[in-house]
């Protein structure tokens, strides 16, 4: 079985866990994992790793993501989307353009965001959503996230169509909720489509049906999706040492301390390394090809 990443197009109604099980069954391989959980009701890009590439999923943690979302004015729910229990309802008219613009600007840039109660955020080692389903009190602290771009594509009857580029850890349900609060009218997310995770683009994603037909042809080399990490070429005489877990002292390069790097040896992807500024050395972090 070929090792690598699959740019999987998750349909609405399928959990991310179910998507992994589906890929495992189609590809007939046990070692499968995914990066960046998508809510069951959401659709879009879900990076899936098969074989040895599953060891590299953690290096997708820092990549930015893009979404298209539909915001619905008039209700706020406990989950942040229109599937949750309504906690506030309003028949107030649609906010005017100025109010919408101010509300959108309030959610742009680096902001403090409180994730929804129904989320995978860990509270004392337990997922907030699991605590909420047991009707236990859940208080989620705010976290800093960055919204690089938040565009209103269209105004619809009682809602907005949004395009969003954001950092990891951002909850689009919270953005919709908080736009409503800033505009003075309750709001919830009505639909979500993830259009990008790092280098994984919606236009290249394969549906479950396409994956069945393509099989291994849908699997791409992992380095194609790790371009956000800078490249380091291991000197030929140190390739074997690096593959055996030994660092390479190299005064000719300067990276940030503990910066992760794509390692190459004679133009072949070797794995991921980490730069230690103290001794000016590149250490292997995870060898992919030995």
From TrEMBL:
Function: Responsible for synthesis of pseudouridine from uracil-55 in the psi GC loop of transfer RNAs.
Active site as annotated: 39
Catalyzed reactions per annotation: uridine(55) in tRNA = pseudouridine(55) in tRNA
Domain tRNA pseudouridylate synthase B C-terminal: 173-226
Signal peptide: none
Gene name as annotated: truB
GO BP terms: mRNA pseudouridine synthesis; tRNA pseudouridine synthesis
UniProt domain Pseudouridine synthase II N-terminal: residue ranges: 24-172
Name listed for the protein in its UniProt record: tRNA pseudouridine synthase B
Family stated for the protein in its record: Belongs to the pseudouridine synthase TruB family. Type 1 subfamily.
Taxonomic lineage from the root: Bacteria, Bacillati, Bacillota, Negativicutes, Selenomonadales
EC id: 5.4.99.25
Gene Ontology MF: a single term: RNA binding
Pfam families membership: TruB_C_2 (PF16198), TruB_N (PF01509)
Record key words, sorted: Isomerase, tRNA processing
Enzyme category, top tier: isomerase
